[in-house]
Specification:
Low-confidence stretches: 1-10
Helix content: 25-40%
Structural class: alpha/beta
Number of helices: 11
Number of strands: 14
Mean pLDDT: 86
Largest sheet: 6 strands, mixed
Order of helices and strands: HHHEEHEEHEHEHEHEEEHEEHEHE
Strand content: 15-25%
Distance between the termini: 55 Å
Oligomer: single chain
Strand order of the largest sheet: 6-5-7-8-10-9
């Protein structure tokens, strides 16, 4: 309204032309005469708020194709400031180089039944452990591209194992710790999982039907005691070792990384199986990087942030959160298992 009061002299040329043409139009019955400039994608995004409609249509149906209003003219599939990051391995290497001595993974220390302060592992220390675990898997003959199961709740070792999978081109297969024997058995056999990381509580579940999972060759017990962990199960011929022993073996026989390509499979995320047998979503490294890079346009994290991890890591939402937090050097503290 202010521009109308200022008169034609203050209008830009395009608006003046629109008003002149509009004044010569005769409105149809019940319609209002007038022309309006078609907004550009950027202007349209500002008006719409969350998304913009792209010109193309889906091949079937009448649905529109939308893109985030944060980037209306370009599809985001890499972090804008670090476009060379194409895999989870690249993302971890970048984070370690950038935030080497910063806090990364933390757990609360328990002594005499009391929960104390958090004890932190730095990004650099996590990198060392990642190399040891990946090298340990190679030491035990787990070949490149093998599927690795993770069968326990959130804790630092979960993240380190996942990083090891990315560094040595293994495919992680998360298993909800609440899954029953039938679902675990189905997923392990369906994905042909060769090695499973578990905790003492879930080890007993695995041993009850281990003979029905012939693909499994190695079980690694996180938080297990070397003295009380069986080394082998004669019936199935599966080796069982503790996480600490695997870590030591890998540290003594360190292997060079086997970096994946962006199009390589990073993980297979299965549903919990509440509506039938679990369904597996096969996700590549570039899938995950694109998802997090796109989200980063609207959600920002900083190295001074501290994040509490309690959502299940077997769920893709928390996995995506972890990728983003890593990229920005955030400290991640883990809950104690009770909410």
């Amino acid at each position: 309204m202010a521009r109308e009061e200022e008169g034609p002299a203050m209008m830009d040329a395009a608006e003046r032309r629109l008003r002149v043409v509009s004044a010569h139009l005769e409105p149809q019955a019940g319609a209002t005469a007038g022309l309006a400039a078609n907004p550009t994608a950027g202007e349209y995004a500002h008006v719409q708020g969350y998304s913009v409609v792209l010109p193309e249509k889906l091949q079937t149906g009448k649905w529109n194709v939308y893109r985030s209003a944060e980037s209306p003219l370009r599809l985001i599939n890499r972090f804008p400031a670090t476009p060379d990051i194409g895999t989870l391995h690249d993302n971890f290497v970048y984070a370690v180089e950038t935030f080497t001595d910063c806090r990364y993974l933390g757990t609360r220390v328990c002594a005499d039944g009391a929960v104390g302060d958090y004890k932190w592992m730095t990004y650099g220390e996590a990198s060392t452990s990642r190399t040891a675990i990946g090298s340990g898997l190679i030491y035990h003959g787990i070949s490149e591209g093998a599927r690795i199961g993770l069968y326990f709740i959130n804790r630092p070792e979960w993240i380190i194992i996942d990083h090891a999978c990315a560094a040595y081109s293994y495919v992680s297969v998360p298993l909800y710790d609440t899954l029953g024997p039938d679902a675990v058995q189905f997923i392990v056999n369906h994905a042909t999982v060769e090695a499973i990381f578990c905790v003492p509580q879930t080890l007993s579940t695995l041993l009850s039907f281990l003979t029905q999972m012939p693909c499994v060759r190695l079980i690694v017990v996180v938080g297990g005691d070397n003295a009380n962990t069986p080394s082998t199960t004669a019936a199935a011929g599966v080796e069982i070792i503790t996480y600490s022993r695997l870590h030591s073996q890998g540290k003594m026989s360190s292997q060079t990384y086997r970096p994946p390509k962006p199009e390589d499979v990073a993980t297979i995320c299965y549903t919990s199986g509440t509506t039938g047998t679990p369904k597996g979503a096969v996700l590549s490294h570039e899938n995950l990087i694109a998802n997090v890079a796109g989200s980063s346009l609207g959600v920002k994290f900083y190295p001074s942030d501290v994040y509490i991890s309690y959502l299940p890591l077997a769920h893709i939402y928390e996995r995506a959160n972890q990728i983003a937090l890593l990229h920005y050097g955030v400290a991640i503290g883990f809950y104690q298992g009770i909410i």
